[in-house]
Amino acid sequence: MAETSKPATTIAFQGSPGAYSHLACRAVFPDFTALPCASFEDTFQAVRDGLAKYAMIPVDNSVAGRVADIHHLLPRSGLHIIGEHYQPVNHHLLAVPGATIADIRTVRSHVHALGQCRNIIRELGIRPVVAADTAGSAAEVAEKGDKTIAAIASELAAETYGLVSLRANIEDETHNTTRFLIMAEEAVTPPRDTPHPVVTSFVFRVRNVPAALYKALGGFATNGVNMTKLESYIVDGHFVAAQFLAEVEGHPEERSVRLAFEELQFFSREVKILGVYPAHPYRFEARAELED
């Protein structure tokens, strides 16, 4: 992880230059320097150490599901969620200049990217090879200079490593989208009376008694609060204890949300708000499509 000269205009991400996280950084903060980090822990640390102002963290993909391990790391990151971004994932089949599709024998990429492009892999009859990440695969293809090897990665990866796109938008599902959280060391909470919709993200553990989860969440239903995410995962290696990551639409200072949280805290323990932030327009665009 390299140091940057202007931390106030730097955003950290996990992965190699040209990764989809890098693309998300460019989309949201086009004037910022993007700082690549080896791991999510390093990405959080870059912000805590003052090397970057923000971190861009992927949490969910519409095809692959949630990003592994990130839900364990978020509550312990020491950072606050201040925004969200939905990044379309448009995969490209990348190769060295001069290569043609007929030359390609193998294709390298992250396991999820390979899984999201099964149709073209079968169509071309090429052998998939699992690699650590998409951008790293592009870098390896550029380094080897072998016309028979391709990578599935972003257009930015092609630009970064001097590759050419033999075919664009090769993902099987056109809705392929990754949701990112923008995180900072200091919370930036919108005012209660903001005219724009907000999201509140939080974690909690329920007491180990019958119907505890049902009772803990009852307040959100009775107060008309829309819960858009609820995921559980094992903590501390105990199969009888689970932590829940949840998101609701609304501000904690709104009466309905405040009452729901009061009921949650009565039946739960270790309730922790991770961030209150503006809702991305994609949320409502996707909802409208489902309702049509």
Protein model, in words:
It is a single chain. By secondary structure, the protein is an alpha/beta fold. It has 3 domains: 7-87 and 177-184, D-Maltodextrin-Binding Protein, domain 2, CATH 3.40.190.10; 92-168, D-Maltodextrin-Binding Protein, domain 2, CATH 3.40.190.10; 198-291, Alpha-Beta Plaits (2-Layer Sandwich). It is built from 10 helices and 15 strands. The strands form 3 sheets. Strands 1, 2, 3, 4, 5 and 11 form a 6-stranded mixed beta sheet that branches. It has a 5-stranded mixed beta sheet with strand order 8-7-9-6-10. A 4-stranded antiparallel beta sheet has the order 13-14-12-15. α8 (212-222) packs antiparallel against α9 (255-267). The mean pLDDT is 93. Its EC number is 4.2.1.51. One of its GO terms (biological process) is L-phenylalanine biosynthetic process. Residues 10-185 form the Prephenate dehydratase domain.
Topology, pairings included?
Blueprint: E1 10-14, H1 20-28, E2 33-37, H2 40-48, E3 54-61, E4 65-66, H3 70-73, E5 80-88, E6 92-95, E7 106-110, H4 111-115, H5 118-124, E8 127-131, H6 134-144, E9 149-153, H7 155-161, E10 164-168, E11 177-184, E12 198-206, H8 212-222, E13 227-235, E14 238-249, H9 255-267, E15 268-278, H10 282-291
Parallel strand pairs: 1-2, 1-3, 7-8, 7-9
Antiparallel strand pairs: 3-4, 3-11, 5-11, 6-9, 6-10, 12-14, 12-15, 13-14
Helix pairs in contact: 8-9
